Amino acid sequence: MILALILSLFFIQTPAQTPPSASVDEKSQQIIDKAVASLGGPKYLNVQTVIGKGFYTTFKDGISQLPARFLDYIAYPDSERTEFVGAGIKTIQTNTGDTGWTFDGAVKKIADQSPEQVDEFKRAMRTGLEYLLRGYWKRDSSKITYAGRREAGVGKRNEAIRLTDPDGFWIEYEFGARDGLPAKIIYKRMRKDPDSGNSVETNEEDQLLRYIEVDGVNAPWVIDHYVNGHQTSRINYESVQYNQSFPQTLFKKPDNIKAIK
Known about the structure:
The structure is a single chain. By secondary structure, the chain is α+β, with helices and mostly antiparallel strands. It has one domain: Clam (outer membrane lipoprotein receptor (LolB), chain A). It has helices spanning 2-10, 26-38, 42-45, 115-127, 129-133, 136-139, and strands at residues 23-24, 49-60, 63-64, 68-75, 79-86, 89-96, 99-104, 109-112, 143-151, 157-164, 170-176, 182-192, 199-214, 217-227, 230-242. The protein has a 15-stranded mixed beta sheet that branches. A hairpin with a 5-residue loop joins β9 and β10 (157-164). α1 packs parallel to α4.
């Protein structure tokens, strides 16, 4: 879901101190430091809010479907509201900490998110770029190891590192060997098969493309998601604003649909 994907790229917090059980090898730490610098260094780290606009497109059997326009608000460390408009219908998805709510414009209904929806939000945070670069892995006592260089096109190489959580779940991150920019996020997860209803393991990958610098902060404006090698979605930004103020009431669950703006 776009809410989770957007948050995974911009979720920012001061890195925590590394507990004794967390570890990172020297080569991986150098790659992380280079990535932070490539994204803007202190300006990147000092972002507190993000307002993003653009289009979200799903893919079916390799064919792009009709895009939906989105407007996304983020207030760090853990609040996000994403509004979608597609086929004239507005939907809203909002998360704050361990809670969330949705608005479905097709049926004019506001509802609390299910535990599964909240878990999906948390999963996206766990697999996101910021989980690595902002140090969340440290508080979870995870470990980071260098995974080597990989082909990334003609004359290009990526440096790869692997982050492994105590429960065995792992995420691999690839960064441009020359520019240090984040290029890919790779992991495996369990999904419910729509045909059989059974849980199956899938290979997931986010490709981070078209970096644009705004106010000294460098970020990808195109994010393609793949499941088992097939593209399933694309996020394409039109504009991004950093550290702009907006009402915190945007994250509060409305009392009724008349309060939806």
